[in-house]
Amino acid sequence: KDAGGRDGGSASGQGCRLAPPPAAAPATTTSSERTRQPLPDASQLRVGLAFDIGGRGDASFNDASVAGLDRAKAEMGLAEVKELDAGAGESEDAKLTRLQQLAREGYDPVIAVGYAYAGAVRTVAPQFPDTRFAIVDENVQGIPNVTPLVFAEEQGSFLVGVIAAHRSQNCHVGFVGGVETPLIGKFEAGFVQGARAAAPDIEIERDYLTPAGDYSGFQDPNKGAEIAQGQLDAGADVLYHAAGASGKGVFSAVHSAEAQAIGVDSDQYHQPTVAQFKDVIISSMLKRVDLAVFDYVAAVARNDLSTFPTKFDLSIDGVGYSTSGGMIDDLVPTADAYKAAIARGEIQVSDTP
Amino acid sequence: MNTWRARLLPPALAIVFSAVLCSAVLLFSGADPVATLAEMIGRVGRGGTAVDILNTAAAYYLVAIAAAIGFQMNLLNIGIEGQYRLAACVAAIVGGAISLPFGLHAVVVVVVGAATGALWCGIAALLKVYRGVSEVISTIMLNTLSIGVIAYLVQTFGELRGNTLGTAAIPPSGQVPGLSFGSAGTVFGLVLLSVAIGVGYALLRDRTRYGFDLRATGLSPTAARAGGVDSKKMVLTAMLLSGAIAGLAGLPEILGRDHTFTINFPTGYGFAGLAIALLGRNHPVGVAFGALLWSFLDKSSLTLDNIGVPKEIVIILQGTIVLSVVVAYELVRRRELAAEQRRVGRALATTGGDRA
Amino acid sequence: MTSAFIETAAAPARRPMPGWARAALWVGIAVVAVSFTSYQTGLPELTASGTVQSAVRLGVPILFAALGGLWAERAGVINIGLEGMMILGTWGGAWAGYQWGPLAGLVAAAVFGALGGLLHAVATVTFGVNHIVSGVAINLLGAGTAQYLSTLVFEPVSQNPRESPPVPKFDTYSAQPFGDWLQWLEDLQRVGISDVAGILGGLLTGVSPITLLAYLLVPVSYLVLWRSPFGLRLRSCGENPVAAESLGVNVYLYKYSAVIISGALAGIGGAALILNPGQAGYLEGQTNNRGYIGLAAMIFGNWRPGGLLGGAALFGYSDGLQLRDGEITVHALFYAAALVLLAVVLLQMWRRNWFAGGVALVAAAIVYSIYWYTDELPEVLTAYTPHLVTLVVLAAASQRLRPPAANGLSYRRGS
Amino acid sequence: MNTSTEPDPGGPPARAGTPAVELTGITKTFPGVVANSDVNLSVAPGEVHALCGENGAGKSTLMKILYGMQPPDSGTLRVDGAEVRFRTPAEAIRAGIGMVHQHFMLADNLTVLENVVLGAESAHGIGRKARARVLELAAGAGFDVRPDVPVERLGVADRQRVEILKVLYRGARIIILDEPTAVLVPQEVDELFATLRTMREQGFTFLFISHKLDEVRAIADTVTVLRRGTTVGTVPAAEVSSRRLAEMMVGSALPVPERGPSTVTERPVLTVRGLGAVEQDRAVLSDVDLVVRAGEVLGIAGVEGNGQTELVEAVMGMRPLRGGSVHLGERDLTGLSTLARREAGIGYVPEDRHRQGLLLDESLWFNRILGHQTRPPAARGPWLDLAGAKADTRRIVAEFDVRTPGIDVDAAALSGGNQQKLVVGRELAGDPALLIAAHPTRGVDVGAQAGIWEHLRAARAAGLAVLLVSADLDELIGLSDTIKVMFGGRLVADADPLTVTPEELGAAMTGAGESA
Ligand SMILES: Nc1ncnc2c1ncn2[C@@H]1O[C@H](COP(=O)(O)OP(=O)(O)OP(=O)(O)O)[C@@H](O)[C@H]1O
Ligand SMILES: Nc1ncnc2c1ncn2[C@@H]1O[C@H](COP(=O)(O)OP(=O)(O)OP(=O)(O)O)[C@@H](O)[C@H]1O
Ligand SMILES: [Mg+2]
Ligand SMILES: [Mg+2]
């Protein structure tokens, strides 16, 4: 019987030659400061939420938006939330219908989760000029009643890239993408830049499960595990995934190789579906959809969208990294130094690989 | 068996049986089947659902006709899924790259779509005719391969809009205007193309020599061969035709609404097409009803979220319908055949049959 | 009185090699070609034990589906519903596995798959429905039922209608210390020895009970189907059911058994997707057409257990390979393909089959020049290497295939 | 004979006086047809009992009832004196009955051994013991057998031996042979009869069906004649003449196809030169030359499997050629498709109407179009002319006396004879110059047969050239103006139908020398 699994790529090296982190500097404004203004009363609002595939329970941005609304209920007395689920491979008119249905039934604001709604929001929002729409992950501009909730995923990924580089014993890390879409490309880009910034000589494996258009890559943990195993076999010992449900496979491969993994979107250390692997999840790149949604509801309740951030980036903690499990506590100063440098604009993170 | 009873009874039986089965499932899971059905039907009157049903039915009709052409010959074109998506992709790329006068532009796009579908299906046809590869397997493989080819094409010829990778937009000269019902939505102009294809298919099937050859080959390849039908040619042309019609299925949406092919282009029409063709017994009118039913189930299932019923019940319903419709056809066929033999026997006995 | 038998049954002058020997020969040639390529291109991945393990893991679900197809089609029932039965298996496996552990999951997966098989049998055997039609419907039903049940049963626990909660897994076993020794050999990086060690190591380490079951079921299927009275009767239903019935074989019974076993095997294939270590629980869409691929592997293997093992292995290997730096490794496969084609050329020359030899030579030249003039392949295309390989191999070999004679025909007693 | 082949002493020794098989009052109807009506049959143990009757008389049906394949509507079965009721063949087998079917029931893909032991695995398994037993039985019956050869590689005679081995392996004492000689050449028939005689000595009882009356008289002890589903009578074979048997079968003198006055002209319609074809490296046709003139019926005689099917297919363009040419009048058809040949004026009555002649699940008028889909009255340009097709179908139904309630019923609903009349009517429509008729009256009852002959004669008188392939030597001799004998893919002899006898023809068909 196999004990812990084979040490396919477990750490044996001495780590990277590390570049010195940027000088730490005073932190800039964070959202905590902004939200210090009193919370409005949202008891008049009825929010409509249109999910992307994956829906509730995806432990990713769908769930994060629910979390944001739950917090809004708790803290602002938000009256009602209506959620509608999407189906795999559905056609555009299903998305249109979903948004129209929410708008027609008087939900305001209507939040569309996922860039797949970009076209639908562009079509539906002008039809309902009195309803406010928000769309996650797509920068829809030029329609007065649409607010984009977009994130600087590359910045968050940069930080976990730094963390990976510091944690790697073999000076070799890996990125596993689910589907090769432009959005996932931002995660890859940031991670690579971060790892290189921290360790210029680092080797980086990069693989996707499927090419653009074949969304099975987000739903195939078995292939996720194989890709991860391939990277571990090649010598990588810290893997970062942006592969949706296939990430489970990545964690399990990392787990049996006793290497280290970095989660994505939410704090996966606390995620029940991957709880069995939590001891290898050293950190997660946080994409604070919950925060964006909460802030958005607050802004709507306040009836003031003018100061709403155009992008949720590091400077307002729209993205970040988690420290749950305490496995990277020693790296927090380093990561925060990079974070400050990015927030100050000293480090520019490109969003394409 | 040309009686109306034999034609209409099986689908009716099948739908009733499936409805009963699904009601049982719903009851078991604690939902109210009557309310569920009422909600689904009520849904049709609301918002753009009626128009959506029509628009999607048009696409379903095309894929189902494509499947039906194959079925007529006992060819199983499982590759419709890949054909319509690849064709839509190539047509959108060409449509976005050329510039022609209004009307002609759209015609060229439609022709390109049909040609692409035919070519992709033609691979399977050639493999079958010259290498004896079962079209079932080759089209399944081609479906998966088409995903890669589409990804490659979109990456190579497409452009990034926000987070969505898509082909260049087709200019207004290539767009096909629809019939607007205001807030209830717009019926795609190319719905008419589906109607035309349906009429063409009906004529082809029942009134032309080619249609005769097609059906004869399907009924008995050996008899067709003795009757002078070239089966290789029939396999090839039927697959090409099937692929060409499949290639049209994505175009109503692209030319009528999206004007681009994105990586989010809908999937799953191909398998729906197979099921709908079975439901409609490959008959042009039957398939039309099948497409409308399927589309109705799809679109009105969106409302089930509202009343807390899992909308997967609709997939179960669809699967049950397909299975029970074929079983019902078989049962009715056996009964009718026996009845007809008895009838012939009686007729012969009275006209002085030569036996007993 | 004896002449006719002698005459007509006399074997052709050149007695053909037995099937298994020919298969073994080609496996040998392929292994040599890949080892040589691995050495020439400096890509140890090609024969690394990791790649082989990956191939095994990816190939096992396909192998089960293919075995399922074998059982059904040997009894004359085409089973394109394998995909749906596999989906039912994943759901059943996750459900029972979550509650009572992996062994129960395995059993439940078999039972759920068998239920799908039973439905297929009712439709095709009792009602004489077209086998493909019934299969398509079962695929719809399998997917729909699993989704529906998952919403009802899993969502309250996992908070996600599309996923089950984590399911306990089987442990893996390795042939120690043999495995370490193989690993040592592999790490030496010696031509040939390391390659073989890599391949053997991949096959023998990290084996889970399901994998072992898959390994076992290939010879077991052979023995049962070809060496037992039950199997003889079952196969006779796929060859000539009327004759079988006239000899007192209960054709319906055997067809039912075969299709139900087929469903159970497909269901176990589904279980292999969730109960093997390193894999998730039930997840909507996770079978991802593996049932269809299994069917293709079976056809590829000429409706024989050894052959379908080869099909599943080829598929698993090319999939495993493309997942490991596919742009480069699949590119290197072209080199190996050119080598295999050269072997074909030599063989055909030896047989004085000049035309076939010439065709193979041209093909080898084309494949080699593709290898020579490109450095890597676009990843969007390498992702589908297994499918392309299947298609190409079928195109090359399908005329030799010999399906059961009554495969796909509906049979009614007394007519 | 080797004593080791003594059959299992399982069955009770037949007591004199108790019939081995006794069928009383058997009635069996199919939808629209009474296949057996009040049939009585008694077979003594240890005899060869022949069953005669024209096509469709109900012989096969009766035997299938005895073998448990079809349940009788009424009547009783006794085996060795005990009343039995078989629901499946398995039960009949257990009672010691075996059947060799008219159409062999063998799985081509399986080996000889597998075919033999299938269904009887409980006796000796499927391994070494079974093989030894099969070899032992074969030796006892005088066969030499290679148990591991797939059946597909065997010729017809060997396949029949496998069928007999199957029956023996099950320890059957009562063996039904349904038309065992139809596919055999005379020498093989002799060998078969030798086997039967040996086995009769060993105590086996045979039920033997044949259309060939002299064979019946040669092997049988007793003959029972069936006509239109009922027993006409049972007579000792030694005391009955073939003529008497024939009269019992048809109720009157045997209808003989009459040729009528010769209408042969000098104008060649079909000219075939040097035709050759191969199948899997085996020459199935070599160097066939023939000419059919207007108004002439050219008959091809031959034992099944000697190239007649291939010749017809080659002339119809359904088979790739290895050489040679086919001309219709002046026109070279060699490279043309089947359809083009039909359009050029060839009508074709295929040998298997179910597989090649008809679309069983379609209406009669739809079937009328098959083969005529490019020509009036069925078509106009690329369009079908449904009205024209229907009108012409009505004409055929009337002229050819096709008994059907209407032209909208499915072809499957017609009886074989009526189906065949429809096919012949269709192929004679549109005044073809040449008709290729393969077994035009096979499996057809006497009435329909006479009707078809009548139409052929009328068309011949109008100048039609006919290439007739038939296994029915009387039909061949009666209809043809010229007969050619085919053997091993070659035309080996010519015969003058005015003088040749079926016996001489039969001898020529086995390749035994030139005929008159
Ligand atoms: N399964 C069946 N269904 C319907 N009718 C049948 C069936 N089998 C036989 N018949 C009819 O029963 C009659 C008797 O057929 P049977 O096969 O017993 O004739 P036969 O004497 O064996 O003829 P042949 O000399 O051609 O072998 C025929 O008219 C046939 O049409
Ligand atoms: N299921 C059926 N339905 C209708 N007619 C049938 C059926 N089965 C057989 N027949 C008819 O019965 C006739 C004889 O049937 P059967 O199958 O016994 O043929 P057969 O005796 O083997 O004939 P042949 O001597 O030509 O080989 C055929 O001509 C056919 O038309
Ligand atoms: Mg890669
Ligand atoms: Mg008969």
Automatic annotation (TrEMBL), chain B:
Transmembrane spans: 57-76, 83-100, 106-127, 139-158, 178-204, 235-255, 313-332
Source superkingdom: Bacteria
The entry's keywords: Cell membrane, Membrane, Transmembrane, Transmembrane helix
Main location, first listed in the record: membrane
Subcellular location: Cell membrane
Membrane topology value: Multi-pass membrane protein
InterPro entries per record: ABC_transp_permease
Name the UniProt record assigns to this protein: ABC transporter permease
Organism from which the protein derives: Saccharopolyspora cebuensis
Automatic annotation (TrEMBL), chain C:
Keywords from the named record: Cell membrane, Membrane, Transmembrane, Transmembrane helix
Protein name: ABC transporter permease
Keyword Cell membrane: yes
Cellular compartment(s): Cell membrane
Keyword Isomerase: no
Membrane association type: Multi-pass membrane protein
InterPro entries referenced in this protein's UniProt entry, alphabetically: ABC_transp_permease (IPR001851)
TrEMBL record, chain D:
InterPro entries: AAA+_ATPase, ABC_carbohydrate_import_ATPase, ABC_transporter-like_ATP-bd, ABC_transporter-like_CS, P-loop_NTPase
Molecular function terms, GO-annotated: ATP binding
Pfam families given in the database record: ABC_tran
Domain ABC transporter: start-end pairs: 21-253, 270-513
CDD domains tied to this protein: ABC_Carb_Monos_I, ABC_Carb_Monos_II
Organism domain of life: Bacteria
Keywords assigned: ATP-binding, Nucleotide-binding, Repeat, Transport
The protein's name in its UniProt record: ABC transporter ATP-binding protein
Species assigned in the record: Saccharopolyspora cebuensis
